[in-house]
Design brief:
The chain has helices spanning about 5-20, 35-40, 70-85, 105-120, 120-130, 140-150, 155-165, 170-180, 180-190; strands spanning about 45, 50-55, 65, 95, 200, 210-215, 215-220, 225, 230-235, 240-245, 250-255, 260-265, 275. The protein is α+β, with helices and mostly antiparallel strands. Strand 9 (about 230-235) and strand 10 (about 240-245) form a beta hairpin. Helix 1 packs parallel to helix 4. The protein is globular, with a radius of gyration of 18 Å. The protein starts with a helix and ends in a 10-residue tail after the last strand. About 35% of the residues are buried. InterPro entries: IrrE_HExxH, Rad_response_metalloprotease.
């Protein structure tokens, strides 16, 4: 049994890489965690219990329950965390909002570390930076935000993982980048403040569908074609097209420069229910 943090990290890394090998196609690219988990016969549901982060239940189940009130990136990481409980065959785990200064819990440390490596292994991170010609020593918050959007995690989450787990950015740069508020990045992209969710789709988006909720904002870079009526164009800022999610359902975005087609899936705002019904077309 792993006892030290080093042993727990090694155990988490090995398990995460083993899970990523189950992904069809290129396992070094971003992937849809929610779809992947359902393929592992784990039921995924969303609820609106304000104090809850997530629940994993082995029996009956297996079942993962997530809080629909959390930001997208937080939901995604919490989901990977709860899936870690499944991978390591833990029992019923209830994760609520807790004091960050609470005592060290090896089991929680293990699944948190697993979540980071599952979503952001070094191979996937290096690829994401390389295809965008971004260096790890550059101070460019918007570019880091783009990569976080493609992976599905929050801006601060990817920074912490790059610094603490992968050691790909120096402490000085980490502090400088993490001092930039997400609201400031959104304002730079949109030209105005926006309190809601902003998903940035650049021409190098790959590996997973573009998932948003009604009222979320979608920033699309480059030449593209929208093949659905689930989003509405509302603005253009510095050559970036700005859309808003307006109807639930599934459509497509065709990025013309590289002839890439991505599914665009829109769900209800703060959807409550079973994940596989999340994008059913309904009138809002």
């Amino acid at each position: 049994m792993a006892r030290t943090k080093k042993e727990l990290i090694e155990k988490a890394l090995f398990a995460a890489l083993k899970e990523r090998k189950k992904i069809s196609g290129d396992h070094y690219k971003p992937f849809c965690l929610f779809d992947f988990i359902e393929k592992q016969d784990v039921q995924l549901k969303f609820t609106d219990i304000s104090s809850l982060e997530g629940i994993y239940s082995k029996e009956p189940g297996p079942l993962i329950l997530l809080n629909s009130l959390r930001p997208h990136g937080r939901q995604y990481f919490n989901c990977a965390h709860e899936y870690g409980h499944h991978v390591f065959e833990h029992g019923i785990e209830l994760d609520e909002i807790i004091d960050s200064n609470s005592h060290f819990d090896p089991e929680e440390f293990l699944v948190d570390t697993f979540a980071g490596f599952l979503l952001m292994p070094k191979s996937a991170i290096r690829r994401a930076f390389n295809i965008r010609n971004i260096r790890f020593d550059e101070f460019n918050p918007v570019e880091f935000y783009k990569i976080a959007s493609n992976i599905g995690v929050g801006y601060q989450t990817i920074l912490f993982h790059l610094f603490r787990s992968l050691r790909l950015i120096e402490k000085s740069l980490y502090k400088k980048l993490s001092s930039v508020k997400v609201q400031e990045i959104k304002k730079e992209i949109l030209g105005q403040s926006f309190p809601g969710e902003l998903i940035y789709v650049d021409e190098n988006w790959e590996g997973r569908p573009i998932d948003i909720q009604v009222n979320d904002i979608l920033a699309i870079e480059g030449s593209y074609k929208i093949e659905c009526n689930n989003v509405k164009r509302i603005d253009e800022v510095n050559g970036i097209s700005i859309y808003k999610g307006v109807n639930t359902g599934i459509g497509r975005i065709r990025l013309q420069m590289q002839d890439k087609v991505h599914f665009l899936r829109v769900s209800r705002h703060q959807y409550v229910g079973i994940n596989k019904y999340k994008h059913l077309e309904t009138e809002i």
